[in-house]
Amino acid sequence: MEIVISGSVAYDYLMTFPGKFKEHILIDKLEAISLSFLVNSLVRRRGGIAPNIAYNLALLGGTPKIFATVGTDFEDYRAWLEERGVDTTYAKVIDGELTASFFATTDQDNAQLASFYSGAMAHSPSLSLYDLETKPDLVLISPTEPEAMDRYIAEAKEMGIDYIYDPSQQIVYFDGDTLRRGFEGAKAMFVNEYEFELVRNKTGMSEREVLSEMDFLVVTLGEKGVAVYQGESVITVKAVPPQRIVDPTGAGDAFRGGFLTGYRLGWDFQTCAQMGALSATYCLESDGPQGQSYTIEEYVQRYRQNYEDGRLDELLNN
Ligand SMILES: Nc1ncnc2c1ncn2[C@@H]1O[C@H](COP(=O)(O)OP(=O)(O)OP(=O)(O)O)[C@@H](O)[C@H]1O
Ligand SMILES: [Mg+2]
Fold it and tell me: pLDDT by residue for the chain (318 residues), tens digit each?
């Protein structure tokens, strides 16, 4: 199954300030605020929704294609992804632009000051599904420029390509009509519990009505696990207890990678959801959204420690 994943591609520049911002902000001088913090650590991490999800599919033997615009500083990220099985053919470099970048400084109270620069991502509405070399079996529409998401949705519908709508953090910016355009006619939608409530509020639609617009709906429930709705049926799956939570960033993306691995192999929703939960837990236990790594054998073994059913044997021979 050929899976194309659209969504942001970004570098995260994360800094820590060994003090407290609040001790340096003069409330009566706010109009002239000018502060510079000497930070004692800086890391650049690979991020962005499309590669986060793709990386998790690749860990389990998939070769997903990311579909996004990137900057001239993308080449080492590209090499890293390719080495791990992610196909970057459709990651288009925009001359004279930098890859989208998130800059965040965190202080000793965990207060954060951050900026996000879209850079090359602002060009994502110029990409078209019509330019793909072959027609994919599935397109994932994950957060990037809203205009780009709209375009890919419209094109997937015109071209008759199955797509999964994954609006996540963009839901807050979308109105009810935009959301509805996204999920009506979709193969599926991925949301967390809170996002699903937002979708219902913004569209004024009931759970039943939303569900009737798509084939199946996946609602992740954090530490409570996940629910998959299809027609009249609902399957719920428990989360996999993490040994320890190192960093929650990217758990939702990892879930999607695990779930879609089961889906690409044609497996039942219970197995897909369990794989999503296990992939998410590996991510919680590591630093950053692509910090986890494991062999397929280790994955299958851990799966068996947590779940009884499933068809994971086939993954070993895939
Ligand atoms: N504390 C936890 N313990 C175990 N599993 C967890 C925990 N938090 C999240 N998960 C797993 O990750 C999946 C996705 O988590 P969640 O529902 O929080 O998504 P999300 O809010 O979209 O995440 P993100 O913050 O990455 O966007 C859950 O279905 C669950 O399997
Ligand atoms: Mg999420």
Answer: 999 999 999 999 999 999 999 999 999 999 999 999 999 999 999 999 999 999 999 999 999 999 999 999 999 999 999 999 999 999 999 999 999 999 999 999 999 999 999 999 999 999 999 999 999 999 999 999 999 999 999 999 999 999 999 999 999 999 999 999 999 999 999 999 999 999 999 999 999 999 999 999 999 999 999 999 999 999 999 999 999 999 999 999 999 999 999 999 999 999 999 999 999 999 999 999 999 999 999 999 999 999 986 678 778 776
- Collect residues with CB below 5 Å from ion ligand 2: 168, 252
Which one of 284, 285, 290 would you pick to mutate in the ligand 1 pocket, going by the greatest count of ligand atoms within 8 A of its CB? 284
CATH class of the region 3-10+49-101+118-317: alpha beta
For ligand 1, atom 18, which residue shows the shortest CA distance? 222
Domain residue spans in the chain? Answer: 3-10+49-101+118-317
Burial of 89 (0-12, 13-18, 19+ CB in 10 A): exposed
* Distances, alpha carbon 249 to alpha carbons 47, 142, 313, in Å: 10, 16, 29
- Is residue 288 within 8 A of residue 254, CB to CB? The reply is no
Q: Which residues are annotated as catalytic?
A: 253
